[in-house]
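>> received
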Amino acid sequence: RDGNWEIYVMAPDGSGQRRLTQSAAAETSPAWSPDGRTIVFTTSEGGTPYLAQISPSGGATRRLTARPGDQADWQSADDLALTVSQPRMVLKGRPFRLRLAVRNKTAVPALNVIVTSSVPAGLRLVRSRVAAGTCPGTTRSTISCWIPRLNRSAFIDVTLRPRRCGRMRLRQSVTGGQADLTRADNTRHTTLRVTC
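>> returned
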């Protein structure tokens, strides 16, 4: 409107236009954050393009990059954590519950979350249940549950029946549809002792 490229917000029909940036430099390539709380854009204030951010309600801009940057773009990332609870010792033939808890540590929902657990040959799967999804990939040796959208947390309850005595190792893991920020808490190894 003033002959300079600036960042505006408006209603979907174009009404209610409100200017967010006011500088002599050109501000271009705006990109909304997935949660709608921030707009990242390119500015050339000072002569070299760099990325900056501003709130959709306006206010001061904040420089994000020290080096030249020419395009703002968001790529979401997951930050999932898996915890496992189970008894340390069980009796052969007596069913027990294994609980897998998945937690989303970001403010943005995680999509297409897959939780798996191995089922050693000495255990028989009785049932698996997840309230926020399904367990379509469950076989005799693997439990695989799909959670289409994980806002905060979900629990997968698995009932297993030991068929032989001894120590058994189980491996559990969680993956999401995006790269995970901290993969160290995505995998667990548990040991189960079955007594006769």
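>> The CA atoms of residues 38 and 56 lie 6 Å apart.
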